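FORM 12-B: Structure-to-Sequence Request
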């Protein structure tokens, strides 16, 4: 009887093994880090030289990723983000938990008080049309900004991105704007274009089988008349 059970178990394992291997092959994982000369995000200067690691897994359109940023200066903003998303065709929806740790402030990670948390929860919906991608982001909870009346702004951000190739480089042009007043994005008083940027990526060949991507990004914030020029290395 025990021998029969072992044979049956072996046969079942033989049947299940190919399916398990296929499932494992469909799971994709990634890990990496960027080293940037400055941390520039949606028209805001959040710090100087920073290391920004990333880690993610995806399966059949469903993805879970972690991203962080830590600057060399103690006064730089420390950030840790978790994103759960789903992509089908050109459509993407996601929820991101941002955690910002500001110097000199109470920034406990597991503190989720309604009026004292350092977390911000953001919902996103976007569509990639190929030559142009459109995304809408809205803060739905946490340490959101306020509007002109001092009420929660449900701060939102609209992003248009257009990738293209030119001169042997991979380029991306972006325009970002806030649709209404919020203190979350530098005190926008209403609709404001707060980021116009152009990014170029180049592969630096190290050996025949290994290269390192480097990038340069020029960004302007017309709303506050600011500019930034960032250089980065992707590992």
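FORM 12-B RESPONSE
SEQUENCE OUT:
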């Amino acid at each position: 009887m025990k021998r029969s059970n072992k044979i049956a178990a072996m046969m079942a394992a033989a049947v299940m093994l190919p399916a398990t291997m296929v499932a494992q092959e469909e799971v994709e994982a990634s890990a990496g880090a960027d080293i940037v000369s400055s941390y520039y995000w949606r028209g805001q200067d959040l710090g100087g030289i920073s290391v920004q690691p990333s880690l993610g897994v995806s399966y059949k359109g469903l993805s879970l990723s972690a991203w962080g940023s830590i600057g060399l200066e103690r006064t730089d903003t420390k950030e840790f983000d978790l994103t759960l998303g789903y992509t089908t065709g050109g459509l993407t929806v996601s929820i991101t938990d941002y955690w910002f740790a500001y110097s000199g402030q109470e920034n406990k990670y597991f503190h989720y008080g309604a009026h004292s948390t350092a977390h911000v929860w953001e919902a996103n919906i976007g569509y990639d049309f190929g030559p142009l991608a459109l995304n809408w982001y809205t803060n739905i909870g946490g340490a959101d900004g306020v509007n002109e009346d001092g009420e929660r702004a449900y701060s939102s951000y609209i992003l248009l991105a257009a990738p293209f190739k030119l001169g042997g480089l991979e380029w991306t042009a972006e325009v970002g704007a806030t649709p209404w007043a919020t203190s979350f994005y530098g005190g926008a008083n209403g609709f404001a274009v707060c980021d116009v940027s152009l990014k170029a990526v180049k592969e630096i060949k190290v050996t025949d089988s290994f290269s390192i991507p480097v990038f340069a990004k020029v960004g302007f914030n017309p709303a506050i008349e600011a500019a930034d020029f960032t250089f980065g290395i992707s590992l």
